[in-house]
Amino acid sequence: MTPTDLSRLQLPRACRDALAQQRPERIDRHTITIASDWWNTEIAAAHLPGAPVTGPDVTQLSRGDLFTDAANLDASSEKELLRFLWRVLAWGSGMKLRLNRKRIRAVADSQSSAVAALRQALQAAREDPAQAYEALRPGGRNAIAYLGPSFSTKVLYFAGGGALDHPCAILDSQVATTLKNNCGWDSLGEDEWPTSTYARYSALLDRWAQEESGRLGRRIGVDEIERWLFKP
Question: Is residue 18 part of a domain?
Fold first, then answer.
């Protein structure tokens, strides 16, 4: 299929209307119920650092919580890097835990290489979406087994700590469906996107965010558009 000319795609009116809402409500306070006990048990069983994923009796995580994690993250610390990963996975999974035991085991089986890939990705995420994506998806494969595009891009997104100029956004099957059905990106596949596709996606959201920033008179983050694409 011929690649869609993304320069002709316009942001749907419904998304433009949603952007009139305040950012903290739509983004920072976007909260997910998580299976805290499950994560703590499985991480301990794998003899990995980074648990507990939350404090006592905490069963929810928000985007704002993960922004705070990223802002305070010491990337030289293996424990902190893995705790950040577990919390991103917990938020992204909610109560649907399919494949997460395999993801934990994959880190345990190749802990040093997994940590190195995470560190490289987080370092690149604030500047170069393609380089960051390639760090976790080198040559179209998973650097960490079972950590595919959907969760890799969540890691890259939260690495920005909520900064309005952060260039990386989440790309998953729900976002892709909206891009195809509501926005006209006809050539976008279902999943397993190559680095070039993530780079095009990042550039498209950046263009839309810049256009909407001018229209609304405030800086719009790419995540405010991704939030609507996830749930239009």
Answer: yes
